[in-house]
């Protein structure tokens, strides 16, 4: 997602123009400009007068402008709704993580009197929070039409989930659970025998072997966040690689990059060369992933296919909730909150699927585009008698303006891909990852360990003594006898709090 003007920030690069729709509309703009040139030349050279009455120009232009405005507004509404849905995922993820990390006890004994140690409890809770993080990553790949679980940012988070329905005896493909069965292929089948747990050295060797297979061009996409660098500190480019923050887990097949956008080509930077692409088609490398385009050069959005990965993760989260309830380790009110937040994840997933899989009807889009083409095609004939040769730049500007708005609506209608104007799904997932790790960073100490300290002035600005001084000198001021209260000194405390409110109200309203 482009948050700042890419044309006037940072160094010069032809890649910046990918944030505009120039590369998508230039063939149509060139076509209508050519028509205007022919009409102006024939009319002005007195070969034939092609001018027609312009009475319909104003009426048709007004109606067409309103329709294009509606098209763009409806697309932007979907764009904003997609952003709101990702905010809901972030909120629900934080709530689930806080309930699990704070309210699930550490010292636990189940109904079979099996005691769980503190270390085991922390490992269990952190693993379930990793599943919450995996949900947002799985949604990101689903919205981009990338199915399965074998991605470098997803597999380390959910590879602990069981692969087969039977835990004992021979394991065959008939016993494979849906999460893994939907991601399998014939080239890299999952072993029927349970593989040994990977050691760290074996994991590093496997990762090295996988990386050596990928060619040099594709390897530059593995550190997928390096392209999002910024010039800071004396012109140095600061880059980060979030894959280093994930676990090193050996997989039975090579993992796909976390971010795999279509590779830009020379035709994206110099659109007019696309007419020669038919002659170079036989020389292209077939393993390159390029952005598909239609006959007019507009980018074709990838279509969604059914994915059950986010749904399966929600099933395991609900199973963990049932496990906590069976053993009485979670209060009913907190269990309700946890269940509601898991349901919010599923509801948000359904809404994102609706946004991505429900474009405007084809009949509406086709009729609008044909109406605009007819308007731009007849425009030179109606204004050539007034503008003369100026009809050429005038038609070029009008076609650029109207076709640009129409294409913007087409581009942001599905804002979940790799275009520069799409939503920053990678950034959203990284923000959720940081927030979940911040939740698990807290040691959950007893409040008495940090409340009654010299760093706390609870009654400031009315009373600037710290909590340690207040508890040591409780007999000086707050110990005045007040037999109407259960504890002596409560009336004085209430007067201090009332004075505190007056001081704060006065100070914050000054000026």
UniProtKB/TrEMBL annotation:
It is found in: Cell membrane. Residues 224-246 are annotated as: Disordered. Keywords: Cell membrane, Ion transport, Membrane, Transmembrane, Transmembrane helix, Transport. This is Bestrophin, RFP-TM, chloride channel-domain-containing protein. GO terms for molecular function: chloride channel activity. GO terms for cellular component: plasma membrane. It is a multi-pass membrane protein. Coiled coil: none annotated. It comes from Mycena belliarum. InterPro entries: YneE/VCCN1/2-like. The chain crosses the membrane at residues 25-43, 50-70, 372-392.
